[in-house]
Amino acid sequence: MLDFVQQLVSGIALGCVYGLIALGFVLVYKATEVVNFAQGDLMMLGGFFAFTFIGMLGLNYWLGFAGAVIAMAAFGMLAERVVVRPILGYPQFSIIMATIGLGYFLRSVVGMIWGTDDFKIETPFSDGVLRIGSLVLAYDKLSVIAATVILCALLYLFFNRTTLGTAMRASSENMLAAYYMGIPVKRVVSIVWAISAAVATAAGVLLAPITFIHSNVGLVLGLKAFPAAVLGGFGSIPGAVVGGVLIGVIESMAGFYLPQGWKDVAPYIVLLVVLLLKPEGLFGLHTRKKV
Amino acid sequence: MRFLFKTDYEDDIRLFPHSGYIVSYGILLAFLAIAPFVLSSYLVSQLVFVCIYATVGVGLMILTGFTGQASLGHAAFLAIGAYTAAFLQQYNVPFPVYFLAAGLLTGVVGALVGFPALRLQGIYLVIATISFAFIVEEVLARWESVTHGNEGMRVKTLWLFGQAVPQNGPTFYFLCLAVLILTIVGTLNLLRSPTGRAFVAIRDSETAARSMGVNVSLYKVKSFAISAAITGLAGVLFAHKLSFISPEMFTLQLSIEFIIVILIGGTFSLHGAVLGAIFLVMIDPFLTYLKDDMPGIIAGIAATFGADSVTAGKIYSNVAAVASANGLKGAIYGVIIVLFVLFEPLGLYGRWLKIKLFFQLFPLYKRATFKRQKIYVKSERNR
Amino acid sequence: MSYFRAENLSLHFGGLKAVDSVSFAVEKGEILSIIGPNGAGKSSIFNLISRIYPPTSGRIFFEDQDITEQPAYEIAGLGIARTFQNIELFENATMLSNLLVGRHRHSATQLWQELLFLPSVRAGEKVHRRRVEQVIEFLDLEAYRDKLISGLPYGVRKVIELARALCSEPKLILLDEPSSGLNVEETDDMSFWIRDMKTELGITVLMVEHDMTLVNRVSDRVIALNYGRVLAMGSPSEVQRHPDVVAAYLGA
Q1: Is residue B381 part of a domain?
Q2: pLDDT digits (tens, 9 = 90+) for A96-109
Q3: Does any CB of chain C come closer than 8 Å to the CB of residue B306?
Q4: Phi and psi at residue A14, to the nearest 5°
Q5: pLDDT of residue A96
Q6: Does residue C47 belong to the interface with chain A, where contact is any CB pair within 8 Å?
Q7: Which residues of B touch A113 (CB under 8 A)?
Q8: pLDDT at B18 over 90
Q9: N vs C: which end of chain C shows fewer Cβ within 10 Å?
Q10: Which B residues 215-274 touch C at CB under 8 Å?
Q11: Are residues B304 and B274 in the same domain?
């Protein structure tokens, strides 16, 4: 029983990371109907920025964290400006390929600049644990969960209650009409990418104590975040996090209770099952073209 | 500039619109025929890879370019074809049999994938194919009784009509070339008949295709099956060429390489598949060239511009460090993909068409002929 | 029994009744127009007939055969073709390719025969091409044969949409607002073509239209709809004088 709860909490923490990456997917998708395959790599880059500030330059953890988030937000806007903006409106497939290309590029450049070893960041809660009875919960896992909940709530409110959020949803539906309505579409899209990169960075830094910082971590986690986003329904912010948590828990349980090898495949099998039964995900909408 | 005057419906149905095509392709074929006897064995080996990748490219083109179903999982189909060949070879099944069996089995798997894919559009289909490929990779690694798991399987030399066909010899090259040509011809035939047109109709407007009587579901499954079968056949050749296969050769990276082939070549034409394959296969030699020759060249240029030997030496080692860096291949892939999507959406074949048009219309060619109109995002959720 | 019959057709989207218990019959060889304000359910009826949506209730009969359960792609095979209000042509293909797809229901070749491009496939292609050329001649589209749809003006596209429907050699054709977006001359041409379809090609026409001049010129009978329900049915002049129709749609 204790093991089960341990695994559950591990799974939830891991799932929150998936959820945060999936959140990044969903944000960009909601604003531009682009799926950013490089989201995981943005997370990885954020982690490396944090490592540079904290580990290499010796800054305080929170300062380094904030610095990384700001730096990545700027980088996200840069990436959007250079790679995505020229090709908005192209068939979705082309844009997906462009983001895949961006991901390749980021991975390789990071590997060339920082090297391909694992790196560690010292965090205030690296070694702390919370004891509830005989249950031992690591602080770093709890911090991930707490941060995810906060971020999710903030972003949900932002998208559904503010004008900017509505503007973003409008641009993704029909950009030309959004222009006509006076929405500064280019600025809106830039901001979304900045937020998305910032969220990814937060995920990366929070994840660092658990999986270390490594140039390939973005690819592996990014791919796992897809089942999360799909499970939640691609257009839903809470859905992304819920999906992420579910996938994390499934993976954790599969790793503990099922034989070797199932751990990695289980999320994808779940994904395929969900796609077959309910393609729009748990929280998504079923739409149909009017002819 | 040649003017085509058509006098018969046959002129539109024929593969070669006019004799100029026959001459050019004839010359090309002649070159390819004498290649193994005049080129170095390294180049011939690269040509074999070009043929294999181009065959997969054609198969992928049928699915993605013509039917509009994106697939990032074709490495799985290649793997199924390769492993079928390796497995049946153990039981001394002759080449023609396991060649066709691999194609057939992969085609069936493709159809099975096609069924659930019917309900999926756009991004969901991409993710589903990635998941499918991932699962296949795991299965190959775990099903040790059949696939020897992560140890991999040795693939014995090809035996055809009682003759050994070693993977580095001219006969193997001709075999791969023949498979490619037959695939291309078959696909062209498909495109000028009702099924091919139905594929293109599905890509552009499923609703209209349905109202014309196209059984969209059936045709999507057919498209998957054909695409997979072609890839499976290429898989057999792939297995023989490498003479050793293991699950980690068939990763997402390989699927992305196939997409690069058709993306760079040009998504809507068969020429594109071949051009893209050539481009992709040339990246590795290019990287080696960068590593070996580039530092010297750049240092040499710096020296001619007056840099002293210390600076030149530093430049040499810096360039060498960058060129030998581990991740350079990935960075180059990334940059190439992004550049092509941004600036050359029609791919290399598109560039070739533009060049041809330039010479045909000289001196009246206008760049604006191919300028893309500014397009705005319109939700693809309601196709 | 009538050629085509809809009995108590209903289509509900949740609480919205797009089509509410509509019944009507079409005689062979006649031109029947459906008129009514926007949102009256006219295109929804078409979508029910071509089986894009399943009806919430009701039955559809064509040549005394119940087609309510047929999948959408088999409707063309029964001899019913349709055009779309927002043109659904294949943008990246030439006009000829578009029209040839219209012949799909007549293609009898198997996949393996096509891969090898056997003489039977070649002969089939020529037959298809000949029929398509007949339609091209009927609609004066010769100039656009090899042009890509994406470069053609709206008026031409509407005619090509009609051509594609005609290429399947239908017995019954559903025209969804054939004159929307066309100027006066093009509408004139359209009215002649619709009449020619009846007299020369023997096709029964079911038409949704807003342009009352066109309706008066070509229709044998008219049905007026509002809020998914039938208001009036009869000859064009009868329906246009009907008080309910005047109140809801035409104005005094």
Answers
A1: no
A2: 888 888 988 988 88
A3: no
A4: -60, -45
A5: 85
A6: yes
A7: none
A8: no
A9: C
A10: 215-216, 222, 226, 268
A11: no
Q: What's the helix, strand, coil split of chain A in %, to 5?
A: 75, 5, 20
Q: What's the confidence (pLDDT) of residue A126?
A: 62
Cβ atoms of residues A85 and A198 within 8 Å: no
DSSP 3-state assignment of B181? helix
Domains of chain C by residue range: 1-79+170-252, 92-167
Global confidence as pTM = 0.86
Range in A150-159, B134-143, B314-323, C166-175 the model is least confident about: B314-323
Residues B168 and B118 in one domain: yes
Query: How far is it, in rounded angstroms, from Cα A213 to Cα A224?
Result: 17
Q: Examine the domain organization and report whether B136 and B215 are in the same domain.
A: yes
Q: Does the pLDDT at position C193 exceed 80?
A: yes
Give C47's contacts in chain A (Cβ within 8 Å): 291
Domain assignment of residue A280, yes or no: no
Q: Which of B227, B259, B280 is the last residue of a domain?
A: B280
Considering only the top CATH level, what class is C1-79+170-252? alpha beta
ipTM associated with this complex? 0.88
| Run of H or E residues at B358 | helix B347-361
In a domain, A124, yes or no: yes
Q: Which domain range does residue B328 map to?
A: 286-376
- B335 within a domain of the structure (yes/no): yes
Same domain, B261 and B290: no
- Asked if the structure places residue B182 within a domain, the reply is yes
Structural domain total, chain A = 1
Tell me the pLDDT band of B382, cut-offs 50, 70 and 90. Answer: very low
Residue C174 tokens read as 């559903």
Is A275 inside a domain boundary?
A: no
C150 touching chain A per CB within 8 A: no
DSSP-assigned letters across all residues of A219-269: HHHHHHHHHHHHHH-TT-HHHHHHHHHHHHHHHHHHHHHSPTTHHHHHHHH
* Co-location of B300 and B223 in the same domain: no
Same domain, B117 and B137: yes
b or e along A142-175 (b: 16 or more beta carbons within 10 Å of the residue's beta carbon)?
bbbbebbeebbeebbeebeeeeebebbebbbbeb
Interface test with A, best of C52, C83, C91, C150 (most A CBs within 10 A): C52
